[in-house]
Structure formats: structure tokens, C-alpha cells
């Protein structure tokens, strides 16, 4: 599968990143594992790896606060090492990676302004990423960057649409609950809304959740009354 063939509108952002990670892995010689780190504002970084160890090494970088992926994403420049076990730039991460048999790494920033994260390639062999391999990796990463940027924008738009739909639904439920309280109390809309908010704070329940419970309870009572009253006789 090629990058341009990935259907961005099908599946969530995580599945798109997973597909891209596999394409990158398969497109570059000598790679034993690939991982994509996507940095998003006000959200935890999204991580998609082709191998379990690749994902675990990304998480390890988060724990240690150092590593090739973090360096590439922060500095917007490629970073490479052919001997992770003795790599001075990542004195804690490097030996940990070396102990699990990973000796070479090439991390490339996603080429979108601002940088969205990094593509990180791992290899078991030492000095695996020669100049031709690194050049190939940069070309593949540049293509992946554009696809990831589009996928991220689409995901953000979907989240916004879902949030707007929820807000509209939430507002409708609150309005219905206010109407119920108005009929019960004989009060106006402002007084009923204030009473609903006060009750929400006293019970430590979200306004929408409380409104939903009031609407559901009113519907249940209406059903009970209709059962007690029995069927309506036909008109004669």
C-alpha cells in the first residue's frame, strides 16, 4: 500500500498512523521497527509502532525525558546513532535500548510547520543507517508528513463536529429540564435554570447529567400515569 492510497476518512487517527508506520517500515532497507510520534496541542502524544519494542522505546523516552524521537521533534532536525549502548546524548535511554538488542536509530522530524513529531527507525545492526538509507528515509518521511498533517486536520475537524453536536444535544436536554421545572414550580425560565444549576452544584453532578435524569424521570412518571389510567376509549 502506498501513502497516497491511505483512506483518511475511514478509521480514526490512530489507525491511520499505524498504517503509515508500516508503510515507512517496509519502504526503508534494514529497519527492524518503526514508530511515529504525533505531537498535538493539549493532548497526549499519539504513538504508533510497527513492533512492540518500538512502541515501548517511545514510551521509555517519555519516562526518561530523553531519546532520539524527543530530540528530533524538539529540534526539528534528524538525529542518528549507530551504537545506542554508548550514545552520550541519551545516557539513560541508549543503554536500555542496547540491552534489548537495538543498536542503530534514525529519528526524523515530521516536516510540517510547526513540527508535528517524529518518525523513528530502529535497527538491530550497528551503523545500519548509511547515507543512502538516510536519504531514502528523509524522502519517505517528507511524504508521510503531508499525509499525517491531513489526517490530523481531519481528526481535529471531526472532534470539533462531535463537540458541537454534543453541545447542541446537551442544550436541548437542559431546555427540556428547565421546562419541566417551570411547570412543577410555576416559575419563569430564569428561575428554573437557576434552580437547576443550584441543584447541580449541591449534588456535585454535571448540569447535563442532572437535566437528563429529570427528563427521564418525567418520562417515566408519564408512562406510569398512562398505565394506571388504562387505554383511551374510542370515540363514538
From TrEMBL:
Residues 154-215 form the ANTAR domain. SMART domains: ANTAR (SM01012), GAF (SM00065). Keywords: Kinase, Transcription, Transcription regulation, Transferase. SUPFAM superfamilies: CheY-like, GAF domain-like. Signal peptide: none annotated. Coiled coil: none annotated. This is GAF and ANTAR domain-containing protein.
Amino acid at each position: 500500500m502506498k501513502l497516497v492510497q491511505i483512506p483518511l476518512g475511514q478509521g480514526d487517527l490512530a489507525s491511520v498512523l499505524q498504517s503509515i508506520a508500516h508503510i515507512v517500515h517496509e519502504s526503508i532497507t534494514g529497519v527492524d521497527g518503526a514508530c511515529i510520534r504525533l505531537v498535538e496541542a493539549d493532548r497526549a502524544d499519539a504513538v504508533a509502532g510497527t513492533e512492540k519494542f518500538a512502541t515501548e522505546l517511545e514510551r521509555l523516552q517519555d519516562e526518561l525525558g530523553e531519546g532520539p524521537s524527543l530530540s528530533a521533534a524538539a529540534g526539528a532536525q534528524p538525529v542518528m546513532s549507530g551504537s545506542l549502548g554508548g550514545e552520550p546524548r541519551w545516557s539513560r535511554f541508549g543503554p536500555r535500548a542496547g540491552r534489548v538488542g537495538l543498536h542503530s536509530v534514525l529519528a526524523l522530524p515530521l516536516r510540517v510547520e510547526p513540527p508535528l513529531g517524529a518518525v523513528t527507525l530502529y535497527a538491530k545492526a550497528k551503523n545500519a543507517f548509511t547515507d543512502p538509507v538516510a536519504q531514502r528515509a528523509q524522502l519517505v518521511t517528507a511524504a508521510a508528513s503531508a499525509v499525517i498533517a491531513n489526517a490530523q486536520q481531519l481528526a481535529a475537524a471531526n472532534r470539533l463536529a462531535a463537540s458541537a453536536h454534543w453541545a447542541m444535544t446537551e442544550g436541548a436536554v437542559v431546555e427540556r429540564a428547565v421546562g419541566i421545572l417551570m411547570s412543577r414550580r410555576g416559575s419563569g425560565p430564569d428561575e428554573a435554570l437557576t434552580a437547576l444549576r443550584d441543584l447541580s452544584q449541591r449534588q456535585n453532578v454535571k448540569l447535563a447529567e442532572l437535566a437528563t435524569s429529570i427528563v427521564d424521570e418525567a418520562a417515566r412518571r408519564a408512562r406510569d400515569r398512562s398505565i394506571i389510567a388504562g387505554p383511551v376509549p374510542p370515540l363514538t
